[in-house]
Amino acid sequence: AKTDGKRTWRLYRDELHQEMIRRLEMRSALNEAVPGEQMRLRYQPIVDLPTGEVVGLEALVRWQHPARGLLGPNEFIELSEENGSVVAIGGWVLREALRTFVNWHSSPAGASLRYMSVNVSARQFRTPGFVDQVREVLAETGARPEWLLLEITESLVLHDADQVWADLRELRGMGIRIAIDDFGTGYSSLSYLSQMPVDVLKIDKSFIDDILHSTQQMALVETIVSLARTLELAVVAEGIELDGHRQALVGMGCPYGQGYLFSKPVTADEIHQLLAGTTTP
Ligand code: C2E
Ligand code: CA
Ligand code: CA
Ligand code: CA
């Protein structure tokens, strides 16, 4: 038994060791990802729930890792926040997403698209010069500020309030809209929410998952939707997978949604086809 314990420990130690090496490798590889042109974008439609019309798109980043294949953000965004590479990655995402949007928007099929939604990490937002960078990318791509929706987290708005709020006001002053992503998972109080310089609430998928089975969950989502209406904020429900979800949300007056029911995140080419009407989402 004693030697067994030793062996188990050794296995455990080796696994830890390998995990550490993996993270170290990922960190240094992440610094090469933007210059090495390894970042990719997928786009997920955001639809007008009553009509099903595609009104916007959310850009979601992927990393084409030279050895590990296509990685999702959950496998690298946290590490990139830690080592700071998220600033370069986020800059690339913003430029690429707007460049692509301008292309679509100028094609007949894409003329009805209203906006591109781009995720901004806390570290990226707090990096001095972020607002100037956004202004530059708009000028460079020819995108109008109204075409851009920046998705930030609740915690960013809650912490570090002075500088962050000033920057949010400046961005909104330019005509850019701000969304709170994963709304409901943080700790914002109601009174705070009414003062936040934001335009859109995105209700986290975890709230949508259970609305068909739990009247409490249903009531909670209804409350968020009516709260948003009172505060004159737009609402997007995330993670809509079932038609029952969609119907329930339409029933409570939730205007917008996204989820696998409509489309998974897909490539720019697939969006182009989707807009041209050659495929259904
Ligand atoms: P998020 O912003 O909440 O994005 C929604 C995530 O839910 C996406 O995962 C999307 O693929 C997934 N999703 C959408 N609809 C459904 C559905 O109906 N069912 C299920 N099961 N999932 C659905 P993804 O692309 O893996 O992104 C994960 C997270 O990574 C994002 O969560 C966001 O926080 C972050 N992220 C993605 N792109 C970027 C980026 O460019 N910059 C930063 N800083 N973070 C990003
Ligand atoms: Ca998001
Ligand atoms: Ca979200
Ligand atoms: Ca999320």
From TrEMBL:
<feature type="domain" description="EAL">
    <location>
        <begin position="23"/>
        <end position="279"/>
    </location>
</feature>
<protein>
    <submittedName>
        <fullName>Bifunctional diguanylate cyclase/phosphodiesterase</fullName>
    </submittedName>
</protein>
